[in-house]
Amino acid sequence: MSDSEIFDRIAEEVYRQGYSVLSNALPVELCTALADEVKSLPVERFSRAGIGRQDAHIKTEAIRRDEICWIDNSTTAGHAWLEWADGLKRALNRRLFLGLFSFESHYAHYQPGDFYKVHLDAFRGQQNRVLTVVTYLNSDWPAEDGGELLIYPEEGKIPLLKVTPEFGTLVVFLSEEFPHEVLPANADRYSIAGWYRINSSGNGKVDPDA
Ligand SMILES: O=C(O)CCC(=O)C(=O)O
Ligand SMILES: [Fe+2]
């Protein structure tokens, strides 16, 4: 499938059900470049991820254990990824009128034993993160390595979906609507998590991306 066919399919599924999961969605060369980059970054580029501004370190540790590194345009792989994400944004805005404005994303590394307990990526009314995008950079991920992403309905304890963090798989969902979690990984698990935001300037604050 071409990028534009992939973008169309994601738009159609997000419109119909609020989420989309596609294997081999990311072009192989792009996914390979990102996988090479994330594995070659020096460890000091990664930092323990947080869960919102004022949360105590101890509480964060109980909720998530991954380490992250924000992606920017300064590397070839980062630039290519941001271009691809921009193409997806334009397609989604054209078809769904979501008004997506800016995009932020980071690499994440889950070491064996790391997890991310059930959470939402955005809270209603805050109008910040609208759409979550996750992609995986692990070639050959056997079932025994765990680390699956579980996506739950807005209310309810039975997952709608269980996603294996396999190379090239892309997951997109409405950030405010789907609680989700990452089960403990039994091997090094590399991914990218990103969020499209709407322009939240107004209410006296200047949006940094405006
Ligand atoms: O890596 C994943 O499968 C999901 C990560 C996630 O939920 C997040 O970073 O907010
Ligand atoms: Fe999340």
Walk me through the topology:
Blueprint: H1 3-17, E1 19-22, H2 28-40, E2 47-48, H3 57-63, E3 67-70, H4 76-96, E4 100-110, E5 116-119, E6 129-136, E7 149-151, E8 161-163, E9 170-174, E10 180-182, E11 189-198
Antiparallel strand pairs: 1-9, 2-3, 3-4, 4-11, 5-10, 6-9, 6-11, 7-8, 7-10
Low-confidence stretches: 203-207
Strand content: 25-35%
The CATH architecture assignment turns out to be Sandwich
CATH topology: Jelly Rolls
- Proportion of helical residues: 25-40%
Give the overall pLDDT as a whole number: 91
CATH superfamily: q2cbj1_9rhob like domain
Largest sheet entry: 7 strands, antiparallel
Rg, alpha carbons: 16 Å
Describe it for me?
Residues 96-198 form the Fe2OG dioxygenase domain. Keywords: Dioxygenase, Iron, Metal-binding, Oxidoreductase, Vitamin C. GO terms for molecular function: ferrous iron binding; L-ascorbic acid binding; peptidyl-proline dioxygenase activity. It is a single chain. With 210 residues, this protein is of the alpha+beta class. The chain has a single domain (3-198), classed as Jelly Rolls, CATH 2.60.120. It is 27% helix and 27% strand. The chain is built from four helices and eleven strands, in the order H-E-H-E-H-E-H-E-E-E-E-E-E-E-E. The chain has helices at residues 3-17, 28-40, 57-63, 76-96, and strands at residues 19-22, 47-48, 67-70, 100-110, 116-119, 129-136, 149-151, 161-163, 170-174, 180-182, 189-198. The strands form two sheets. A seven-stranded antiparallel β-sheet has the order 1-9-6-11-4-3-2, with helices on one face. Residues 203-207 have low confidence and may be disordered.
